[in-house]
Amino acid sequence: MPTKLQKAWVLPWADCFLLLKVSIFLAIIQILIKLFPLKIVLRLLSRPQAFPGDPAFRPYRTVNLVELTSRYHVPRPTCLEKALVLYSLLRSRGIAAELTIGTAKKSGAFKAHAWVELHGQVIMGSSAEPYAPLLTVLRQGIK
Description:
Blueprint: H1 4-9, H2 13-35, H3 38-45, H4 59-72, H5 79-92, E1 97-106, E2 109-118, E3 121-124, E4 132-137
Antiparallel strand pairs: 1-2, 1-4, 2-3
Helix pairs in contact: 2-4, 2-5, 4-5
């Protein structure tokens, strides 16, 4: 039975590079969230795009690679950390994704959740529970 590392070697080089990039980026996001308010982190991630649109870039493959990396990342990333990484990666490629943070109250307990949408569809962070959107970060800024 092949190990996880052996499975990773069969991925295309672009995917291996993206896995490494996501892993490093998750660690950076986890540190930034602990050190700074969310508003500052969002401002840092909303800088002008570094790479123009790439026709070979596949947003849904990026979602899968972020989810895969998150399963083995220590410490385990929260939905907000994963959503911030994906939102930033998509935005850096010129893809108009939306990052939404929502809240809900269940059995008297306050809950929050973050997800990423592309063309009105949730591509990461879907939930069976309904969350009321509290903050939506668009490509142009905060709504």
